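USER: I would love a firmer grasp of how sequence relates to backbone shape in proteins. This is the protein in question:
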Amino acid sequence: MHKPTVETNLARTMLRRATLNPERTALIYEDQEITYAEMGDRVRRQATLLKQNGVCVGDRVGYLGFNHPALLETLYAANTLGAIFVPLNFRLTGEELTFIINDAGVHSLVCDDELKKVIDPVKDNLCCRHYYGSESGSGEWRDLLAERAQGDPIESEVSVSEHDVSVIMYTSGTTGLPKGAMLTHGNIMWNNINAHFAFGSGRDSVHLTVAPLFHIGGLNVSTLHSFTLGSTLVLMRNFDPGEVLAAFDKYKVTHMFGAPAMFLFMSQHENFDDTDFSCVETFICGAAPPPESLLVLYAERGVNFCQGYGLTETAPFASFLTPEWAISKLGSAGQPPIYTDLRIVDDNNEPLPAGERGEICISGPNIMKGYWNRPEATAEAIDAQGWFHSGDVGYLDEDGFLFICDRLKDMVISGGENVYPAEVESVLYKHDAIAEVAVIGLPDEKWGEAVTAVTALHEGCELTLEELREFAETQLARYKLPLRLHIVDELPRNPAGKVLKFVLKEQLTD
């Protein structure tokens, strides 16, 4: 007897919505309203274009650019063919992007007009076979919109398993080399099921996305789920506090994901007091815990927060702190989602009791398949029982709520961006004035943590923060550049010669 299967292709979910609810508004971008029928047609035509130009099952299709409908359409078009979508961080330099694009083996690259200038100087070093401009075409850049409009809509999508890869999302590596987290169609689907039960949006919800879509938070906290629901997504090219506040009045937004810094900047804007938040059901906050003062400020306006902890590798949700616990469990990252488990383990990978600190491990259908072309790194991250080792240190209280204490991997989170000190240090060491350098994160009211360079200089040398940033800006994305510089006689080290970064943090934190 034939057993029916559930088709988990991410593209099919959106295309089925286009069939079921063609008249509903799928996407609003810069006052352009796109119905589900129109979006489905665009995706099918783009899939035809990519297929005619050689994209096959398993090939990688990249996108570099600011938030734009074409990014989402490219994702769905690639998945329609059984191909894999690779979103690229628009803050990276050409050198950084070269490594990622070639590591992923990107077959076709879509890029917006503003970012072409980053790709053009490194094109000779890239493996891409085709280059498409998402807004216009010129020279080697083919006009995506014009070419796809000329083709016929593809009739059907490729059938995939929930274990097939939908998206490869690159995360900064502790050694300086980014790793591509392979997120399957099932990972994305189960994350959205988990999220749905945590902050329950519906078909009439209006989701506002201002976080960058190359980030797992921007892409898969609520953006992709909105197309599953058949609701409306308001997409903004980038974050502007005034424009975001105006969107609540204009579009009656019900849900928004952001980092604490975004909600802080909104609250400091001159239009905050006059903004109508009555339609908001919940704000979803990630990347760092929001301060109590911010929670109270928004609560006075009738807005609740659902806080989340997660990683790219967990697609992203590993825990939620839902609104009813926001104050009584202040500082907690919450409880695991309904279909995901959490545990704290010691150095021997043995579970620890409540109150004891250890590494946070996550298990569930939202855990990535592994790292692209990195079997050793995959084996280090996911143990034999299927638990993903986060590299974060935390504990569970008596009620099972997670508290995060530290990061095993020394990562700095600045403005919601992950910054790995080793990557920054390797660049700064090239400066002629620097004898030794350590990069740490220090508390910062605006960014959560400030990337801080602590350096000892060669004898007779001088160095300013401005000079250091200017030196590094061609090799590092701007968010990785030091915001502070401290010059010391020497760095504190243990007997084995390892820099004691916790000592630096204690010395430099008031």
Notes: The chain has 16 helices and 25 strands.
